[in-house]
Amino acid sequence: MSTDTNQEAREQLIDLAAEFYDQFETGEIPSMSLPTRTKSNIEYDEEKGVWVYGDRTSTRSANSVRGARKLLKATYTIEFLADQLEEDRSSTLRELYYLSESWDNDNAQFNDQDESNGLVEDLEIVSGVTREDFHMRPEESGAKVMGPIHIREQTKRGDRDIHCQLDVGQGGYQIPNNPDMIEFLDNDAEFVLCVETGGMRDRLVENGFDDEYDAIVVHLGGQPARATRRLTKRFHDELGLPVVVFADGDPWSYRIFGSIAYGSIKSAHLSEYLATPEAQYIGIQPADIVEYDLPTDPLSDSDINALESELSDPRFQTDYWEEQIELQLEIGKKAEQQSLAARGLDFVTETYLPERLEAMDVI
Amino acid sequence: MTSFQSTLGEEEGIAEELAENQRAISIAEFFEKNKHMLGFDSGARGLVTAVKEAVDNALDAAEEAGILPDIYVEIQEDGDYYRLIVEDNGPGLTKESLPKVFGKLLYGSRFHAREQSRGQQGIGISAAVLYSQLTSGKPAKITSRTQGSSEAEYFELIIDTDDNEPEISVEETASWDRPHGTRIELEMEANMRARNQLHDYIKHTAVVNPHARLELKEPSAHFKSERATDELPEETEEIRPHPHGVELGTVMKMLSATDSHSISGFLQEEFTRVGKKTATSVIDEFRDRHFGREMSWEPPEATESADVAGAIESATANKGATATADFAETIATTVSNRERISHHKLVDIVESAAEATEDDHGTTFGDTVCENAVEAAWREIVGLSNEIDDDGTSSADTESDADSRITANIHALADDATSTRKDDEVIHAFAERLAGKFEDAEDVRHRFTHGELQSAVDRAAELTEEYDEAAFGDTARENVVEKIWAAMRTVPDDPPLVRELAESRDASSQLVDGMRATDIMAPPTRCLSPITDELIEAGLRKEFDADFYAAATRDAEVSGGDPFIVEAGIAYGGDLQAEGSGDVLRFANRVPLVYQRGACATTDVVKQIGWRNYGLEQPGGSGIPNGPVVIMVHVASTNVPFTSESKDAVANVPEIEDEIELAIREASRELKSYLNKRRSMEKRRRKQNVLGQILPEMAEKVAEVTGNPEPDIDDAVARIMNNVLVERELEENGDGQAVSVIVENHTSTTESFELTDIVSAEPRGLSDGATVVEMDGEWFVKWDGDVSSGDEAVLEYEVDTDASFDLDVSGVESEKLTVTDQ
User: Fold this and answer.
1) CA distances from residue A181 to A2, A148, B272, B538, B711 in whole angstroms, order as listed
2) How many CB atoms lie under 10 A from the CB of residue A294?
3) Taking residues B88-96, what's their average pLDDT?
4) What percent of chain B has pLDDT over 70?
5) Tens digits of per-residue pLDDT, B604-620?
6) A21 and B706 in contact by Cβ < 8 A?
7) In terms of Cα–Cα distance, which of B794, B686, B684, B693 is closest to B747?
8) ipTM for this prediction
9) Terminus of chain B with fewer CB atoms < 10 Å: N or C?
10) CA distance to partner chain B, nearest, from residue A208 (Å)
11) Contact assessment for residue B653 and residue B559, using Cβ atoms and an 8 Å cutoff
12) Nearest CB to B720 within list A18, A29, A107
């Protein structure tokens, strides 16, 4: 990371503080306005093809004790981030939370990590600088890549050239917190396959799927971290690889797909930077449950609620999703990726995925 | 019992033998055995009761004499006994009455008076004397000095319980330092376990008697309660009984004692709120009960066969054709012009027609003629003429052909009174049956009492139910009775004289009923002496250190003929105990009620009120509210209904309970707004405290991050707190400086402020509205005004550069005020 971007991010933060300062000086009540982060306030940006925040805003104002505390914490966090950038260091979100304990002011300390995470998001939104540029890292997400691609990663200890099949173990190449530090060298890849669960990723690697189909297998590890989504987007945008998502056949997995393809509600301000609108959902689709007669579990009440909530989620208002979700509500069942093993351990790599990929015109 | 039965016949003398053992019991003897009835059930309580009786007496005595009471109570420990001394500055007692007041139970001046006073029966103090002699065996020692006498009288006495008379052992003159007053010294077996109640009694007495000075000295405490006012309570006046509040026995006693001859005179003379008009109304009610009412009928229409004029003409003989015709015509016209006519009214009409005809024609129409005319006309009106005229044969025919006039009349009334759902056939059958009662009545005047009418209607209804198999329920019967009763007329008969009435229990009872049924104005309240809301508040302020006080005095109401007034007071906060439930102070006629809290109507009412609505804590939504609160209730009445002779609890009389509730609610209304305000101010203060910490910290940090000097945050804070901000700005101006004091109103309401700026040098060029006064080398700039919400006001002047300032702002609540003056 160059000192220029550091300086730029730092200035953005100090501008924020200066705004508070001016508000005090002119006798106004210090406040900070943010887009409302709910699903009713996201809208589709035609131009960029992603979902971004709408016009509704909520205000953090020093009018109330709560609001005043929030702003005080924001001020302390701004100072911390500005100092960190100046010293060209980085820290994790969790470290920020614990670090607040050392602040001389009880009112400025965070009550829990959700609060500090939320505040960093707030600052990203108002300053227009990403968390990564503040040098704030999430905890290790455990996301890994395996596939026929050669990359160069800038590390604190110098550049490293890595081939993501030949230079890595069974576990694959671990995605760094800031994937913009990666340079793509060359590749033989045909497409990117994002896999929800570790078990399925291991199955694909063991069966040599990445090798056979020239696939870059990206392990999502549940709700994918920003870095994973960013890297996926770069694979697509910079290498022109189609992206498919392979997850469980339940509403929570559709959300995982949603955050890759459309952007998440919490980070809609970064959709342009994180989302891959061209990503496709490979399965498990509710239609597959019927077609392959997969072993299933019944939908729980919370599953049904989640499905219904997805029906009203603007991101899922496409013909494909409406059809699939309604079908699932109708059959009242869900299935895991691993349920394909009911047809044998090789069924997924030899039958299911090739059939689906062909149907989707990926191979 | 069986043994008595078997021996009854054998031993003839048993009744006599038993009779020998029976004898009258003296009241003193009775109370000797039933001490608890007077509040002397234990040593602890006996002492409190004795203090209470002595102090109540002393207060009454001083007030009656128009003296501001000054009462001293002392309790001394003396071996196994306690000595109680109570001294007052009252008018003193004469040598003759003193022994009886203290040495005879039920001796007093107030029992018969309808007037508010503390004591009533004349039991209290003599009961204390009795208790003292029973437990210690020592006589009561009493000193009394009347105003103007040079010496005091000193007595030692006990009560002879056999005949309830004082027994004086020592009687001498003595010297005493008080110019007038009474001192009583009683020795008794007692203990100080009820010390709290004793202190409460004195303290609470002080609350409701702010004009009294009280002092208590007991072995382990000594305190005084000074006066809060030098005004004596307004003197009360005795009133006569109210007609609504007397019972039959009392009325009979009054009837035989009165000098009045007529009932009207008796009523006006002996009762309060009865004038001529009210007396007439009472007598009408009495007449209805005593004589009954006469039924009135609709006069015959021209289309009917009844011929009033014709009947009179044929009944009048030898009076000349023209005069007779004129006479008959006058009566017939007058009758037909009336809506309804009763027998006595017909008599009136005939008599005045007779007089008129006499005047016109010179013929005398005597009593016999009139009687005949009345009879003939009445027959026509009630439609009984056929029976007589047709030789007694055709009466059945006429009845079957058409309804008699009476049946038609009753039918119309009954139809009106019953629901439309009733079958007309049924009503008709009922009306016919009821009409029979009138037709067959012995008294042709159709005079019935309400009771007689009731049973006639019941009978007719029962027959209808039986023969027509139709329901004729209680409501329908009641409605019919009321409808017909309303059509019946009060008779003009003269009521009996008082002396006749006095001899008849039934007639007296009819009079009492009549009095109760008449609307009579509430009794006058000059017989009551409420403390008044102001003095209640003053009394509470004097005895309780609280933040908030409120009181309310209700208008007088009546219960059982006795007027009463309820007052309530509330104190909240301050040094009152915050833990546990609040205190309820109960008073009746200015006397604190110490015992039997749970049996008292006052407590019941306090518990029923939803105190949460008033901002107090009340676990479970009922019961005595929690927190630092004192609720006091005073019931003043000419006759407070106590649950027992010991006068510890007010009985649950609905009228009184209602008033207690209203009084408490009235006083509490202000509490509610006070507590709301206090709460919102507390919230504001808390917010201000927290923000007052956070915002400067934030400002400091922001300044640090941006590398600027610390910003001025007063404006922002005032705006956040919706406060009134007062700031001073100084500007060098040649050799002096221009001063502006700016008042910014960030609240949502218009605020009035008074501002005083003390300047060490003479200010010049003061802006409009400000004044300056010099005092000892300091200049006091005074400036006040209103600032509407969101506005600002500015005070400007010029002063030397070295001047110093001292700014003070009042008029705005401190929670809403931010003054920044460097």
Assistant:
1) 11, 19, 107, 82, 41
2) 22
3) 87
4) 94
5) 999 999 998 888 889 88
6) yes
7) B684
8) 0.76
9) N
10) 55
11) yes
12) A29
pLDDT of residue B398: 42
Nearest chain B Cα distance for residue A270, angstroms: 27
- Residue B120's pLDDT is 57
* Helix residue spans in B65-160 (DSSP H): 97-103, 124-136
Count helices and strands (H / E) in chain A.
14, 17
Enumerate the residues of chain A whose CB falls inside 8 A of the CB of residue B725. Answer: none
d(CA B798, CA B511): 88
Contact: A29, B716; criterion CB under 8 Å? yes
**Angstrom distances, CA of residue B722 to CA of A28, A69, B714, B749, B789:** 12, 19, 12, 10, 10
Chain B: residue whose CA lies nearest to A29 = B716
What is the band of B109 on the pLDDT scale with cuts at 50, 70, 90?
low
A75 at interface of B, judged by CB pairs closer than 8 A: yes
C-alpha span between A98 and B44 (Å, rounded): 67
Instruction: Please tell me the distance from the alpha carbon of residue B638 to that of residue B649, in angstroms, as a whole number.
Output: 16
Cβ atoms of B37 and B645 within 8 Å: the answer is yes
* Helix or strand holding residue B754 (H, E): strand B751-759
pTM of the model: 0.58
Nearest to A69 among B694, B702, B703 (CB): B694
pLDDT of B390: 41
Q: B157, B140 in Cβ contact below 8 A?
A: yes
> Does residue B396 carry a pLDDT above 60?
no
Q: Which residues of A touch B698 (CB under 8 A)?
A: 20, 30, 62, 68, 71-72, 75
Report the range of poorest mean pLDDT among A322-331, B465-474, B543-552: B465-474
The span from the CA of A6 to the CA of A226, in Å, is 20
Copy the structure tokens of residue B151: 């010496």
pLDDT at A126 over 50: yes
Beta bridge partners of A183: A152
Of the candidates B691, B697, B702, the beta carbon closest to that of A21 is on: B702
Q: To probe the interface with B, which of A20, A79, A107, A109 has the most B CB atoms within 10 Å?
A: A20
Single-letter code of the amino acid located at B430: F
> Cβ–Cβ of A79/B701 closer than 8 Å?
yes
- Chain B touched by A76 (CB under 8 Å): yes
CB environment B768-796: b (16+ within 10 A), e (fewer): eebebeeeeeebbbebbbebeeeeebebb
Sign of the alpha-carbon torsion through B589, B590, B591, B592: positive
Residues of A in contact with B716 (CB under 8 A): 23-24, 27-30, 62
Quote the crossing angle between the two packed helices B343-361 and B367-382, to the nearest 10°: 130
Q: State how far the Cα of B722 lies from the Cα of B217, in Å rounded to an integer.
A: 54
Nearest by CB to A20, from B687, B691, B702: name it: B702
Tell whether A83 lies on the interface with B, counting CB pairs under 8 A. Answer: no
Q: For all residues of chain B together, what is the average pLDDT?
A: 84
> Catalytic site residues of A?
98
- Among A24, A65, A78, whose Cβ lies nearest the Cβ of B690? A65
Instruction: Pull the structure tokens for residue A35.
Output: 């887009």
Determine contact: A80 vs chain B, CB below 8 A. no
Give the torsion sign (CA, A199, A203, A209, A211).
positive
Backbone angles phi, psi at A215, to 5 degrees: -105, 145
In this structure, are residues B10 and B3 in contact, taking their beta carbons and an 8 Å threshold?
A: no
Q: Which residues pair with B811 in a beta bridge?
A: none
Statement: residue B346 has pLDDT above 70: yes
Q: Which residue has the tokens 């509403």?
A: A251
Nearest to B795 by CA among B725, B715, B728: B728
Confidence (pLDDT) at A231? 93
Task: Report the distance separating Cα A188 and Cα A178, nearest Å.
Answer: 24
Identify all chain B residues contacting A84, using CB atoms and an 8 Å cutoff.
Answer: none
How far apart are the C-alpha atoms of A354 and A244, rounded to whole Å? 12
Establish if A19 touches chain B: CB-CB under 8 angstroms: no
